[in-house]
Amino acid sequence: MPGNSFGQTFRITTAGESHGPANVVIIDGCPAGLALTEDDFLIDMARRRPGQSHIVSQRQEDDRVEVLSGTYQGKTTGTSIALLVRNEDARPKDYAGLQDVYRPGHADATFDAKYRLRDPRGGGRASARETVARVAAGVVAKNMIAHLNHIEIVGCVAQIGNILAALPSPDILRVDDVERLTDGSANIVRCPDHAAAAKMIELIDQVRKDRDSIGGVAHFVARNVPSGLGEPVFDKLKADLAKALFSLPAVMGVEMGSGFASATMRGSEQNDLFVPSASGLHTSTNHHGGTLGGITTGMPLVMRVAVKPTSSIPRVQTTVDSHGDTADLRVTGRHDPCLLPRFVPIGEAMIAIVLADHLLRQRNAKLVDEVR
Amino acid sequence: MPGNSFGQTFRITTAGESHGPANVVIIDGCPAGLALTEDDFLIDMARRRPGQSHIVSQRQEDDRVEVLSGTYQGKTTGTSIALLVRNEDARPKDYAGLQDVYRPGHADATFDAKYRLRDPRGGGRASARETVARVAAGVVAKNMIAHLNHIEIVGCVAQIGNILAALPSPDILRVDDVERLTDGSANIVRCPDHAAAAKMIELIDQVRKDRDSIGGVAHFVARNVPSGLGEPVFDKLKADLAKALFSLPAVMGVEMGSGFASATMRGSEQNDLFVPSASGLHTSTNHHGGTLGGITTGMPLVMRVAVKPTSSIPRVQTTVDSHGDTADLRVTGRHDPCLLPRFVPIGEAMIAIVLADHLLRQRNAKLVDEVR
Amino acid sequence: MPGNSFGQTFRITTAGESHGPANVVIIDGCPAGLALTEDDFLIDMARRRPGQSHIVSQRQEDDRVEVLSGTYQGKTTGTSIALLVRNEDARPKDYAGLQDVYRPGHADATFDAKYRLRDPRGGGRASARETVARVAAGVVAKNMIAHLNHIEIVGCVAQIGNILAALPSPDILRVDDVERLTDGSANIVRCPDHAAAAKMIELIDQVRKDRDSIGGVAHFVARNVPSGLGEPVFDKLKADLAKALFSLPAVMGVEMGSGFASATMRGSEQNDLFVPSASGLHTSTNHHGGTLGGITTGMPLVMRVAVKPTSSIPRVQTTVDSHGDTADLRVTGRHDPCLLPRFVPIGEAMIAIVLADHLLRQRNAKLVDEVR
Amino acid sequence: MPGNSFGQTFRITTAGESHGPANVVIIDGCPAGLALTEDDFLIDMARRRPGQSHIVSQRQEDDRVEVLSGTYQGKTTGTSIALLVRNEDARPKDYAGLQDVYRPGHADATFDAKYRLRDPRGGGRASARETVARVAAGVVAKNMIAHLNHIEIVGCVAQIGNILAALPSPDILRVDDVERLTDGSANIVRCPDHAAAAKMIELIDQVRKDRDSIGGVAHFVARNVPSGLGEPVFDKLKADLAKALFSLPAVMGVEMGSGFASATMRGSEQNDLFVPSASGLHTSTNHHGGTLGGITTGMPLVMRVAVKPTSSIPRVQTTVDSHGDTADLRVTGRHDPCLLPRFVPIGEAMIAIVLADHLLRQRNAKLVDEVR
C-alpha cells in the first residue's frame, strides 16, 4: 500500500523528484463549482519559492502551476484536477559525489535500505522540493474552505534557536503582520513579533556564516472552523492534523492547544469552561486548541510544530558510505540555513487540505442536514 | 468517509460504546500462520484494565477477549479476525443527568455538534472505553512483529505534573522496571525511576483528594525495528505514529527523538553521524528518534506523548447545557485521577499496530526481495 | 491490503467462518438519525435463512442479529454499528474427511494455495455462510436508502436450468409476486412467473434426487434511484455494482441493461432517446439499464446475474488431495441443490450497500447543494 | 470519496479531459527495480491510438508518454510514477452546439445531473480519451507481471454484431494472430479467426456507411497467473476484474469462465475436476475461468466482455436539451463506428493492473513466504 496520497474525500496524490522533469499533484474529490484559475496559485507559490530572500535557498524556480484538467471556464467541474510544476533550475551535477555517501540527517541511507536503489540528485523524492505539489494543492483547499466557511489559516514563526517571539492571540494574528513589516517591506522571516524577527534574521545570518543551520518552531491558527469536524475514533481532527504536519520534512514535534504544558496542569486548570455565546459553542479559555474528543468546537485551532535545523550543512562531517565504510563528506548544493520561513506556507497548505477533507466528510455525519 | 478504521495492510476497524453491550474489533490483513490464542490477550488487557490499582478508575471489568473468527487450531488463517469484549460493569445510571449538560473538556458538546444526537451513557463512543478494542488488536500486532523481527515496544511514564523521571537509555529500558518494583510488587504508576514513581503516586493521591486530576508525559521506545519502514511522502513512519498517538483520548502533543528541543539546536548538533556497524545502519547519537526522511534507520524509535489531566473531575464546574444556557455540573461516574499509568499499554498497542502495518507494507517496496 | 471491507463512505467490514462461533459485520459511515432496531433484521434474515423450504439447505439457523453498538434509543448515532450473528447449527464433524481432499468447484485448493493453511469446517470463510453478515448490513442500507429517497430494490429468479421466466417490466415488478403465490403461500423459488416457478421447483426436486445441482439467473431492479449517482472514472455505479455482485459466491456473469444482447445491436437501436418528463431525465426505452457514463439517469437499474450450480453435490467425484494425488470424494454436509432462491435477498443486500454508499458520496459532488 | 483511483497496492490515479491540455496518471506502489523507459509505451499506445486504421476514429494523436517521475537510470525507484500524455489533435469547436443538448446514449445528461456543470468539449472526462492514461499505466503493470511471473495477457475480438469468431483455446491464443494476418499485414479488427475478421471489417464498413455503429464482444485470456491471487470476501479476483472491466466506457456485461452458460448447467457438468499435475493445481476442464472462491487456481483466466455500439452516430436523433425540451441532434466529431478493435488493448490494460495489484497484495497472505 503506497504512501503518496493524503486525505479521504478531498484527496491528493503527488509525484516528482527534486531534479526530475516536474512535480505533479492530482486532486480528487474537489466539488464542482469552485472558482479556480492559474493566477490563484501565484501568492502561495511565491511564499514557498526558494530564492525569495537572502535567508533561504538560492535555487531559482518560477514554480508556475499549469492546470491540466478538472476546470472549465474558470470553475472546477468535479473531475480530478491535475496540477503540473516543472523543475527549471535543477542542477543534478551538484550531487555527483553523493551517490554512495550517506549525508548525516538525510534520507539517503534509509531510501537505500527501503528501495535498494534511489535517485541521488538532490535527495530525489526525499527533497523538500516535493512540497511544491502540496502547496499547489493547498491553494485549491484554501479556496474551497474560504468559499464554504470563510475559514482562514494563518501561520507564522514562533521561535528560532533561543529567540522566542511574543505572539498575538489566535483571534487576532494577522497575515499582514506575518508577511509585511510595518514599513511595508517583506517580513522575510515571517515572525509577527517584529523585534524578535530582526534578531532571528541576525541569527540565521550568523549560522550561515558558521556553515551551520538552526531549528525553530512554527505556529498555526485556523479561524472560523465550524464545530463538528473530525471523525472518531481514528480520524480525529487532531490526529489527521498531526499526521499532515509530521508528514513534512524535518518536523520533530506537534502540539495542539496547551500541548506539553498540559503535563503539569490539573484538570481544574486545563478544562476550558463553556460559556453562553450567540454563535455556537464558546469556551472562556482555549487550552484544548480547538478540538474535544477529536472534533472541532468552533474555537480557533492552535498548533505548534517543531522543525529541526537543516541537515545539509556546508562543512565536513564524518559518515559512512553505502558499503558501511567511514567517509568524510561536505554537502554541496543550495540549502536553507533555517527552514522556518518557507515552512509557514507549507504547513498552512497541509492544514488547509485536512480541513477541506473534513468539511466534506462532515456532510455525511447526519441523515438529513438542515444546515447545508 | 468514516473514521473507525486504522492501518492499510494490517487494518483494524472498531466499534463499541462505554455502556453498550460490547466492544468489537475486526483485524483484516493479519497473515496466515501466526500463533494466537485467547490467553495471549490476558497480560495487556490486565495492564489496561480499570480497577487494577488504587490510583486508577474503580470500574471493574474482566475484559476477557473472545476470538470469533480468523483462527483455526491456534493459528491465524489469513481471514479477518473478530475480537469481542463484553461490557460488564456498565452503570449507565451514573450519567442520568448528563444528557443535556456539556461536561467541560469532554466531547459531549462536539458530538452533539457533529451528529445532533448521541449516546450520553459514560460518553458513549467518546469514552476511553473504546481503547479496549485497540489494546486487543495491539496484542495481535505485538505477536506478529515479535515473531517476524523480534520487535520490542516498551512504554513508561516519564512525567506526572512537575515530577520528572530519570529514564534509562532506549537501549536498556526494561519492561520489568516498568511493571515491577525492586521488591517484586506492581509498579502501579509504570515509571522506571522508582524514586520518582513514589512521588508520582503521592501526587496522584493528593489530586484525587483535591477532587482534581493531573497530566503527564508518556515515553515509548521500539527496538529491533528494521531499517526501511515508512512510506513517503505522506505515510512516513513518524506521520503514522503521530496520527496513531494523537488519535488517543487526551493526547495534546507528540515528539519524535529530540522533538521540541530541536528548535534550539544547530545542524551540527542535531545531525546524528553514521558510524560503521556490523548490523546495518548505526548512528553515534539518536536525536532523529529512529527515522530519517520518515523511514526507519534501525536505531530505536523514541517518542514522547503529552497527556492532559482527566477532564472528569468530581467538583462543581460552570458550563452550558445543550440549549446554550449556563449550568452548574458535578461529574459523577468512576474516573482516573491521572491517565498516565493506563495510557502506557494503550500507547504501546497503537505503536505496535503502526509497525505491523508498515512491516507488511515494506514487503512491496522492492521488485524482488532477497531478504524474506 | 486486505479484502474484507466494501464501500467507501457507507463501509462494511465482515468476519466469520461457517462453523466458527459467529459472523460479525461493522458498518462504518451510517449517518446519525436513522431508525434501527433488532426487529428490522427479521424479514431479510428469514429470506436468506437455510431451512426455509424443502428446496434449500436444511441447516437450521435462527440467525438473530444482535446490535452491539452504534444505536441509542432506536436510532443510529453516527458511530460504527457492530452486528453479531452467532452460528448455532454448526456441525464441523460433517467435514472431518475434507482437510486434505480438494472438493471440485470449491475453494479448498485455492485457500491452501493462498494461505497454506485453512479452516476446513464447512469451507470456513469460503462458505456462503459469510453472506449472513452482508444481508444484515444490507438491512441497514435498505432502511437508509428507503428513508432518504424511497429507493426500492426487487430481486427475483429469472431462469433455472432451461426454464426461463416471463418477467414483468422493471416498473411493475412487485415484491409480493416474488415472495408470495396467488394463494398467499410462500413463493419458495422467488420467481414472479408463477407457472415457471412451478416448473423450476420440479426441476430442483429432480436434480436433488439425481444427487446433482443446477444453475440459474437472478434478475434485479432498483427503482427511485436519483440521477447523478456514480463516481467516474473507476467507481462508476455499474462498476461498483458489478464488483458487489461478482464478490458473491458462485457468480459467473453480470449484465446491465441490454447486456450481452448489445453485441448484436446497432447504435440506432441501442441508444435510448431522451424524452421530456416532469420528473427529471426520462428515456423512451431502457437498454442502458439505468446508468450512462457510469452515472444513474434516474431510470430503473436493471441487472442480471448468472449463478453457477452448487459445487457440493452428494455423489462421488474424482479429485486430488493436498499432496497432488488422485482421490475419490463424496461431499457430505447440508447444501442447496440450487442457489437461486436464497441468492435473491443476498444480491439485493449488495445492491443496497452500493446505493447507500453512492448516495452519500454524491453529497460531495457539488460545492453547494440546493437540493438537500 | 472520489472515484479516480483504482487498485490498492499497485494504485493508479488518473486525470484529464478529451479536449483539455493533457491526460495524466500517477502510479503509486510500483516496486523499485523494474526496468522502464519511455519506449516501453510505444506499442500499446499505438494499439490504442485513434487513426490507426480506416475502421476507427480518425482523430490523429501521437500519444507519446512522458515519464515525469519515479524512475532513475531506466529503473523504477519505488516512488510514485507520473506519466503525461498531451492532447494534440483536440478540436473543441466540433462540440460547439452540444453544451445544452443531451446526446442519446451519452453521459452529458448524467454529468449535468451529478455536477450541475460540465466540460462539453468531446464529452470531457466522460470521453474514452481518458483510457489513454489507463493504457499507459497498463504498460507498467504488464512489465511488472511479466517480469515477476511471466504473466501474459491476450485480448481479441470474439464477436461483432452477429458475426461470431471461432477462437483458439486459452492455452494457445497468440498475440501474433490477433495483431497480424497471415500475410503479415495488420489485423485491424483484432479477431484471430481471420475469416470472421474479414466479415467483421465488411460489417463495420457497412454500418459506417449507414451512419450507424455496431456492438460486439471482446475475449481476454491471462496465462501463467500463479494460484493464490484474490482477497476474499469482497476483493475476490473475479470481483476486481469485473469492476475493472465495467469501469470502461460502453461495457454492458462481463462473464468469467462459462458465464451465463452456467445457468443451464448441472453441478456434475460445471465442476472442473482436479487432476494430478507437476506444476501445481490443474483441472481437466476450465468452466471456472481461472478462479475458485475468487482466488486463482493457476488455470488461465478467461473473460468475455459485452461492448455496446458507439453512442455517437452521425444521424439525426430526437432528444432533449438541458431545459428538458425536445431537440433534434446530429452528433459531429470523429468517432469509431465500432469500439471493439481499440477496446482490446484497453481491456488488457485494466486486467494487467488488477493482476499487478493482486500479485503484490498476495505477498502478505502468509506470515513467512518461502517462495519469494
What would you note in describing this structure?
The structure is a homotetramer of 372-residue chains. Chain A is globular. A 5-stranded antiparallel sheet of chain A has the order 1-2-3-7-4, with helices on one face. With 372 residues, chain A is α+β, with helices and mostly antiparallel strands. Chain A has helices spanning 42-48, 108-115, 131-149, 175-179, 194-209, 237-246, 267-270, 340-362; strands spanning 5-6, 11-16, 22-28, 66-67, 71-72, 75-76, 81-86, 152-160, 163-164, 216-223, 251-256, 291-292, 295-296, 301-307, 316-320, 326-330. Chain A has one domain (5-362): Chorismate synthase AroC (Chorismate synthase, AroC fold, 4-Layer Sandwich), CATH 3.60.150.10. Chain A is built from 8 helices and 16 strands. The two termini of chain A are 35 Å apart. Helices cover 25% and strands 20% of the residues of chain A. Chains in contact: A-B, A-C, A-D, B-C, B-D, C-D. Chains A and B meet through strand 1, helix 2, helix 6, strand 11 and helix 7 of A and strand 1, helix 2, helix 6, strand 11 and helix 7 of B.
Q: Helix and strand succession of chain A?
A: EEEHEEEEHHEEHHEHEHEEEEEH
- CATH superfamily descriptor of chain A: Chorismate synthase AroC
Q: What is the total number of structural domains of chain A?
A: 1
Number of strands of chain A: 16
How far is the N terminus from the C terminus of chain A?
A: 35 Å
- DSSP summary: helix tally of chain A: 8
User: What oligomeric state do these chains adopt?
Assistant: homotetramer
Please describe the biggest sheet of chain A, giving its number of strands, its sense, and whether it closes into a barrel: 5 strands, antiparallel
What is the second-level CATH architecture of chain A?
A: 4-Layer Sandwich
- Spatially, the strands of the biggest sheet of chain A line up as 1-2-3-7-4
The amount of beta strand of chain A, in percent, is 15-25%
| Strand-pairing-aware structural class of chain A | alpha+beta
Output the CATH topology of chain A: Chorismate synthase, AroC fold
* Estimated radius of gyration of chain A: 21 Å
* Arithmetic mean pLDDT of chain A: 94
Helix share of residues of chain A?
A: 10-25%
